[in-house]
Amino acid sequence: MDARPVERVEVDLLVVGGGATGVAAACTAARAGLRVLLVERYGFCGGGAVAGLSGTVCGLYEAEDLPRTPRQLVHGFVDEFIAQMEGRGGLGPPLRYGKTFTRVHEPLAWRESADALLAEAGVRVLYHALCTEVQRNGDLIEGAIVWTKSGRLDVRARLSIDASGDADLLALAGLRTSCGADGVVQNPTMIFRLQGVDIPRFLAAHGSDTIMPAAVSALIVEAQGAGQDLPRSKIWLFPTTRPGELLCNCTRIRAADGRELNVVQGSDFSEAEVQGRLQVRAYARFFRERLAGCEHSWVNDTGVQVGVRQTRQGAGLAVLRNADVVAGRKFADGIARSPWPIELHAGDRPRVEWLLNDYYEVPYGCFVPERGEGLLFGGRCLSGEHEAVASARVTAQCFGYGQALGVAATLAARVARAGGARGAEPPGRPSRRLTPFSWRAPMTPEQILAIPPKVLTQAQREFYFNEGYLLVERAIDEAWLARLRAATDELVERSRAVTRTDAVFDLEPRHSASAPRLRRVSNPVEQHPAYWDYCLHSAMPDIVADLVGPDVKFHHSKLNFKWAQGGEEVKWHYDISFWPHTNYSPLTVGTYLYDCGMDQGPLAVLPRSHLIDPMLSQYDADGQWTGCLSEADCARLDLKQAVFLPGPAGSLTIHNCRTLHYSARNQSDLGRPLLLNTLTSADAFPYTVNPIRPKHDQFLLRGQPARYAHHDPRPCLMPPDWSKGYTSIFALQQAEAGMAVAR
After folding, report:
1. For residue range 42-58, what is the model confidence (pLDDT) as tens digits?
2. What does the DSSP assignment read for 646-685?
3. CA 653/CA 550 separation, integer angstroms
4. Dist CA 15 CA 7 (whole Å)
């Protein structure tokens, strides 16, 4: 019994576990205004990264056969955490890890960074506390009983997040979980820090790759043959932020009878700690005797506990399959991306299976229990198959899971408050409270910024919403550029047979078969498959999703040319007035197929012009549509503030549909093909006929369809009736007669 009184605590969100997932979830939800309690069994945050001393931020970088320069693919809350650790001198530079890179952190810097972010967000943190029961009312999880030194807490929460790593809340609630492959989990490891190492000598002898070379494995096998207890021959050794120190991930802890230990079994956990310490001494002795640079080394410390890779997996609405990881599969409800390999620790040699020049996504359903309400779970206990978890469990991804779960908790709490519901049901589950995907909050900038980004940094997204534009340099790789250039060359060749502007080719007056001079190819996605493939499969729509929300629709495309020595000026104008929508989420992405310099007529934008309200007119004094601002309006604007956006090949120019923009004539000897795609949030619906009439109009490129339109209250200027024909912006602004193209 416990005779002490029970204290009642009421919060919006209970987060159990202070690892990467728990910290990110708690901070994200608290920043959105939720009352958040984070419960952590140790006296610090960090989970396996700190208590288990895993010591690295894995999962940030793309893998390739011959990695030279780290290319970060994973952003979001993890960027904030990285900045915190860097500010404390507690995070090293990217280190080679096989075909990718990782970064080593100092455990104290991790703890301090978590403390700072949680305090800043206003999260109530309860250290040295342990959940012992869940509060369950039928299928509804209403909170938990938390044990502390001062007594028990009866925590009542609208929503709980199990970030324990071991699916403890799910197990306490009697919800279905599983362990590994038929009960066999990845083996635990006692990680330790080795001091007194001559790092330059060590690197000169063994190389800069933190996965030790075959020669080191051969030495271990030789020592095994001589009777030394070194059960793992393929090992990782990382130079740390501290001088003369290696972080050693090398032990393989198994039971005395040879089986893999599962630390959710109390006896296994205890045995793992003892066996782990014995192995640490054996490996440290081997390093002193056999590895260059380690001759005078000693064990500085081990993890607070044995390092755990896998215990329980929650049973979710979705399951991350092994095949999803290997194939680099993307999901409509993907909430985090991972380029990390399958890193399966079993047997004497861990198996690493790489995903090269690609990434996979983890769907939201992997964090929603298959039954029960008021509960989400995340971290290494996600719903996944054995080998998939061997990839998806690492730190950078866990930060992403937590950020997404914090957003889900926020949305659920808002819905519950609006409807007066007893508990908060996260999006994505059929229930009496919220039908799956039947409603999504309007994609306002605030809502979008609360969703974890897939590609862009949070700073880039904030810049776009504040300034109305963004330049993302070298966003598209050479493989895509080669396909797009080849398709463009084919279209130029086709134009030689065209003598006047038609529904596809908008020609300069000087165009001829011998010397083609194009202004535009209308609707290129229907003229060559490469352009539509680009819309479907490149990083471009993922970047757009970071700016309009996860549900992205296609509106139209065009391929604009500024031919050498004469490509025409495009006057200051808004895009949205040509094709008004119910809101102002539409944006246009320009892809530079070749380098674009200042003399080639790059896109120019007027920062913050998307905030001008009411919008300026694109009709003249006589009520005639001109498709551009009047000279009088231009004179009232401070056009000296215009920003030009030149960039290298593969760069993206992105401007909001309300942002005023312009481009000068091309004065150079080089052409400037610019592929333009206009995409929108799924909750933006056009008021008028699409003037280009593409067959892919309103095609959903990412996410799910909207059931409700989002209506921006600000008025939008309407264009002429395009149903009988559309005059191109070039012909219109150059006042060319007879240029309406019948559709």
Report:
1. 999 999 999 999 999 99
2. -B-TT-EEEEETTS-EEE----SSS---EEEEEEEETT--
3. 20
4. 18
- 141-179 in b/e burial notation, b at 16+ Cβ within 10 A? bbbbbbbeeeebbbbebbbbbbbbbbbbbbbbbebbbbb
C-beta of residue 661 within 8 angstroms of C-beta of residue 587 = no
Contact criterion met (CB below 8 Å) for 127 and 37: no
Q: How confident is the model at residue 733 (pLDDT cuts 50, 70, 90)?
A: low
Specify whether the CB–CB gap between 125 and 142 falls below 8 A: no
Q: Give the three-class secondary structure for 425.
A: coil
- Residues 475, 544: contact at Cβ < 8 Å? no
Rounded to 5 degrees, what angle do the CA atoms 164, 550, 47 make?
A: 15
Confirm if 403 and 24 have CB atoms less than 8 A apart.
yes
Q: Environment class of residue 564 by beta-carbon count within 10 Å: exposed (0-12), middle (13-18) or buried (19+)?
A: middle
- Residue linked to tokens 């009542």: 156
3-state SS string for 273-294: HHHHHHHHHHHHHHHHHHCCCC
Token pair, residue 358, equals 């690609």
pTM of the predicted protein model: 0.64
List, for residues 503-519, the tens digit of each pLDDT value.
Answer: 899 988 889 999 898 88
- Is the sign of the CA dihedral 486, 490, 496, 500 positive or negative? negative
What pLDDT score does 418 carry? 57
pLDDT range class, residue 737, cuts 50, 70, 90: very low
Helix (H) or strand (E) holding 152: strand 151-162
Angle between helices 77-87 and 20-31 (to 10 degrees): 110
Distance (Å) of CA 182 to CA 253, 385, 439, 541: 19, 11, 39, 39
What would the two tokens of residue 220 be? Answer: 């271990």
**Which residues, including other chains, have CB under 8 Å from residue 537's CB and lie 6 or more apart?**
none
pLDDT of 421 > 60? The answer is: no
Query: What is the token pair recorded at 488?
Result: 């463009």
The answer, yes or no, to whether residue 559 has pLDDT greater than 60, is yes
3-state secondary structure of 412: helix
